[in-house]
Amino acid sequence: MDYALQRRNTLQALKRPQRSLDGTDVCDADPLLIRAALHHGEESAVHCPICAAPRLTNLNYVFGDQLGQYSGRIRSTPELNEMENEYGEFTVRVVEVCTDCGWNHMIASYLLGDGVTRRPPRRQQTVEDIYG
Fold it and tell me: Do 66 and 83 form a contact (C-beta atoms < 8 A)?
């Protein structure tokens, strides 16, 4: 699913004379989202629509029952290509983030997988499990 119409509607709401939105309403990225974009994001060819910064990045979040404890994590595009043959079905949500002004918007959501139902991988112990 493409969210281009919602994105365009949000940007047009900023330009309206009555201004139902202002810059603080749309440039409200969580600090953890900005940090994830700085360290795990993939650079986009699109400039930021708010501040025109060339540093707009995309984050690919993966969700699905078959992913087990790995659901909700960020994956790069090459990792998504590998995962497509390892899992039956999972959802990818692409979020664009400007690390300068805090603009963020979900731009796409799509399904990947090979269609073969699998059990989630065994849960592995994490640092949080060990140290509380």
Answer: no
Q: Residue 110 has what DSSP assignment?
A: E
Q: What is the spatial distance between Cα 78 and Cα 124, in angstroms, rounded to a whole number?
A: 23
- Note whether 65 and 88 are within 8 A (CB): no
Give the ranges where 1-132 is alpha helix by DSSP (H). Answer: 4-15, 23-26, 31-40, 77-83, 127-131
In single-letter form, the type of residue at position 13 comes to: A
Instruction: Find out whether 94 and 59 touch, Cβ atoms under 8 Å.
Output: yes
Distance CA 108, CA 130 (A): 36
Convert the pLDDT of each residue in 6-43 to its tens digit: 888 888 887 776 665 555 667 889 999 999 999 999 99
- Domain residue ranges of the chain, discontinuous segments joined by +: 4-13+21-116
pTM of the model: 0.82
Smallest Cα–Cα separation from 76: which of 63, 62, 64? 62
Q: Using CA atoms, how far apart are residues 83 and 74, in angstroms rounded to an integer? A: 12
